[in-house]
Amino acid sequence: QVQPVESGGGLVQPGGSLTLSCTVPGSIFGISMGWYRQAPGKQRELVASSTSPGFTNYAGSVKGRFAISRDNRKNTVSLQMNSLKPEDTAVYYCNKFSSTFWSWGQGTQVTVSS
User: Fold this and answer.
1) Which residue among 15, 41, 67, 96 is least crowded, i.e. fewest CB within 10 A of its CB?
2) Which of the four pLDDT bands, split at 50, 70 and 90, describes residue 53?
3) Which distant-in-sequence residues (6+ apart) come within 8 Å of 81 by Cβ?
C-alpha cells in the first residue's frame, strides 16, 4: 500500500508563509498529484493539483497564494503557501489527483493564528 508522508506544517501568523512537503514511497512519474486539506467539521477538499510537470490548478480560495510543485526524480510534491489566512487552518494531505486514492497519510497540521 502506498501511503504518502506529509511534513512542514506548523503555527504561523496571518500573512505568513509555509512550505509543505510530501514524499511518496514509489514513483510519481506520470501520476497526477494533489494537495488536499480538511478543516475541523468540514469535508476534505482539493487545494491544488499537478497533472503533469508545469500544468497546475488551484481552488479559488488559494489561487494566487499557493503554488504546487513536484520532483519526479525524488518522488516529492511540495506546496508553497503564502499570505496565509486563518481560514487556511486545516490538516493538509497529499495523494493522487484521481477518483481513486492511495492510503491517506497522517497529514500535516497548518494553523494560522495570531
Assistant:
1) 41
2) low
3) 17, 18, 19, 20, 62, 65, 66, 88, 110
Apex CA 96: angle with CA 93 and CA 100, to 5°? 110
What pLDDT does residue 109 have?
A: 98
Cα distance from N-terminal residue to C-terminal residue, the chain: 39
Task: Give the DSSP H or E segment for 70.
Answer: strand 66-71
β-bridge pairing 45-52 and 55-58: antiparallel
Query: Do 2 and 26 contact (CB within 8 A), yes or no?
Result: yes
Q: Is 36 exposed, middle or buried (0-12, 13-18, 19+ CB in 10 A)?
A: buried
Residue 38 and residue 89 in contact, taking contact as beta carbons nearer than 8 Å:
no
Q: What's the mean per-residue pLDDT of the chain?
A: 95
Choose among 102, 76, 100, 98: nearest CA to 6.
Answer: 76
Q: Which residues pair with 76 in a beta bridge?
A: 23, 71
